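Quick one, C-alpha cells below:
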C-alpha cells in the first residue's frame, strides 16, 4: 500500500506539472521530536492515541516550488505569491484525499494565524511538517529551519497526514544535506535569534499587507540559489 500511495501522490503532483516527494514516517518518532503544544494537538487528533502511537505513521508530502516563482522573491514576489497559493491548495487537496484513503487526519500546508501570533501558532500548527518530512526521509532541517532536500534544496512546501495505519516506514536521511554555508543566515539576521519564529512572523506580517499573502522566502531563495547543498 505504501508504494502505491507514494506513486499515486507523485503522479498527482506531476499531472499538475510540478515535482514532488512523498515518504512515510513513524508516528512515535515524529511525536517524540515535537514541541509540547504540538504533542497535545497530535493527541487530540488521534482516534486512539495509545494505539496510534504504537502502530501509526505520518505521510509526508512535498511539492517543489517552480524556479520562476523562486526568482520572483524580492523582485515583486508576484509569481512566488501565486505559486505559493497554488502549491498550498494542491497540498491541502492531496492531504485530504490521502486522509480519506488511510482513515487519517490531514494537516494542511498553511495555518491561518490571524493577527495573534503568541502560542496560537504552535497550537494551530498541530505538528511540524519539517519534523515529519525529516522522519519520512525527504530531507533534513537546514540552518534556515526549512527542510533541505537533495533534489530541490529548501524550495519545497509540505503537508502531512497522521494515520493510525501501520504502513511501511521510510528511513531517515543519512547524508548531511545542509552544507552549513550560512547563505541563509547572511540574508536574514533573524535566523540567528533564539525566538526567531516570532520575529520572522513580524516581518512576514508587515509584507503581507502589501503582497496579500503571508510570505517572505528570502532564506529559501538564498539557499536555493547560493546554498552549497547542490554540491554535496
Ligand atoms: S522567512 Fe524571511 S523573515 Fe523569516 S527567517 Fe526566512 S528570510 Fe527571515
Ligand atoms: S543556505 Fe547553506 S546553511 Fe542555509 S540551509 Fe541552505 S545549505 Fe544550509
Amino acid at each position: 500500500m505504501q508504494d502505491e500511495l507514494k506513486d499515486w501522490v507523485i503522479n498527482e503532483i506531476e499531472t499538475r506539472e510540478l515535482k514532488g516527494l512523498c515518504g512515510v514516517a513513524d508516528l512515535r518518532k515524529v511525536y517524540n521530536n515535537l514541541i509540547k503544544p504540538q504533542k497535545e494537538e497530535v493527541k487530540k487528533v488521534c482516534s486512539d492515541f495509545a494505539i496510534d502511537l504504537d502502530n501509526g505513521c505520518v505521510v509526508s508530502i512535498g511539492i517543489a516550488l517552480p524556479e520562476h516563482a523562486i526568482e520572483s522573491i524580492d523582485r515583486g514576489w508576484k509569481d512566488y505569491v501565486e505559486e505559493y497559493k497554488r502549491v498550498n491548495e494542491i497540498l491541502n487537496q492531496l492531504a485530504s484525499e490521502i486522509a480519506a484513503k488511510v482513515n487519517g487526519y490531514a494537516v494542511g500546508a498553511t495555518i491561518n494565524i490571524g493577527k495573534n501570533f503568541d502560542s496560537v501558532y504552535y497550537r494551530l500548527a498541530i505538528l511540524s511538517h519539517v519534523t515529519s518530512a525529516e522522519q519520512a526521509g525527504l530531507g533534513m532541517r537546514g540552518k534556515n529551519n526549512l527542510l533541505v532536500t537533495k533534489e530541490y534544496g529548501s524550495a519545497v512546501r509540505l503537508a502531512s497526514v497522521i494515520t493510525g495505519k501501520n504502513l511501511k516506514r521510510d528511513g531517515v536521511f543519512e547524508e548531511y544535506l545542509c552544507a552549513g554555508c550560512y547563505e541563509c543566515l547572511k540574508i536574514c539576521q533573524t535566523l540567528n535569534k533564539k525566538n526567531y519564529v516570532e520575529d520572522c512572523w513580524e516581518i512576514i506580517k508587515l509584507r503581507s499587507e502589501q503582497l496579500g499573502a503571508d510570505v517572505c522566502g528570502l532564506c529559501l531563495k538564498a539557499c536555493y540559489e547560493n546554498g552549497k547543498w547542490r554540491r554535496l
